[in-house]
Amino acid sequence: MHVIYIHTHDSGRVLGPYGYAVSTPNLNALAKDATTFRQAYCVSPTCSPSRCSMLTSLYPHENGMLGLAQRGFTLDYDKHLVPYLNKHGYHSVLCGIQHEAGWYLDHEDGSKALGYQEDITTSPQGYRQEDLVYWDQKNADQAVSYLNQYDKTNPLFLSFGMYATHRRFPDKIDPDIDVNQCKPPYPIPDNSQTRLDYARYLTSAKSADSCVGKIIQALKENDMYDDAIILFTTDHGLANPFSKCTLFDSGIGVSLIMRVPGSTTKGKVVDELVSHIDVFPTLCDLLHLPKPSWLRGISFVENFEDETYAHRDEVYAEVNFHTSYEPIRCIRSKTHKLIRYYDETYLHMNLSNIDESLTKDYFMDHGLQDRLKYKEALYDLVYDPGERNNVVNDEAYAEIKKTLSYKLDQHMKDTNDPLLYGELPVKKEYKVNKKECLQASSKNKDDYVSLGK
């Protein structure tokens, strides 16, 4: 059984199969022939920690990927899915982005560190960031060529990773996209500035969907489609304020669409909670492979026969570093969420953890730097799905708060979370902005706690 892992950057659930007016006909078609998880969540809403947690089935504070790989953070790569599948007879191939080792455009060193047996990625040199969606297209063509000649001697693990929908978005908007008919997703205000920004996202998403279509068509033409597990996902929410790098659902909610041959839930949706950390053990069950001892996740293999099966009652997520230090933990049940901010010395917005954009500019013009975070927040997701009414001190929610607090404390103890012992250290190899810094890419050395190696 082949495994085809297709992934975007920073897309959350803002795609066609999740009800958004996004031009993704190929993803929509895949969803109709696959199982779509409507309540899937990443483990950490920042690129490298999210991907590493899914591909090791360990939380960031366990696997070591506390921040971005290109900023000096690393992990035990022997626990990554790629070497595990290599040991079990798979031929592993990287095409495009990975974000678990080093700089994500440095595909050669990254693929070696992760243990891929082949790297067929085309060169990213010569592209502006705004044009890297064209690099995605080149990589899709390369993957198609590879599938056309693959001899199938060994089962294939293909990771096809896209730059889309990472910022910077394309600055040339697709001609089929009307800026005036765009509506930015919650929690972004609707105005000319944010509509233009969102139109660029939609352009990036449309390009990503085209790449997905090429891969799916090649699998069908080479008689691999019905002998492959196809996994489509993204790392976290959109790169907007109050989304990426936050533990709101707009940050941790992700697309997860899986096509499993023989599944009886193709074309159906699963509304039960699923965490990225559960993907590795689920693949083990689907492939009939032994589970490594370190896996934290819980298999949801039953969902490919019963879309109503609930394999967990809550999911956990965390932030440690993105560009600056911002330690946060949360527990989310089906109906409530508890979020804790562990840096009481700085409850302002960590502005460098918010990607530069027209949308960020709009918020900055309206006092984003003066907004404060709650030390602790409890949200009723039934009556407040937007997570804006903190009921942590409401006596009507006292028992719910007590229960979630106990479970979060227990989770931190069970996983030996270092936050139990105080502030996380900034090692000399980490590149870390000061909390007060406005931009991640600041050229002022005084804006950094550590410049890294």
UniProtKB/TrEMBL annotation:
Top-level taxon of the source organism: Bacteria
Record-annotated Sulfatase N-terminal domain positions: 15-288
Signal sequence bounds: none
Keyword Hydrolase attributed: yes
CDD domains: SGSH
Metal-binding keyword on record: yes
Keywords: Hydrolase, Metal-binding
Single GO cellular component term: cytoplasm
GO molecular function, one term: sulfuric ester hydrolase activity
Protein name, per record: Sulfatase
Upper lineage: Bacteria, Bacillati, Bacillota, Erysipelotrichia, Erysipelotrichales
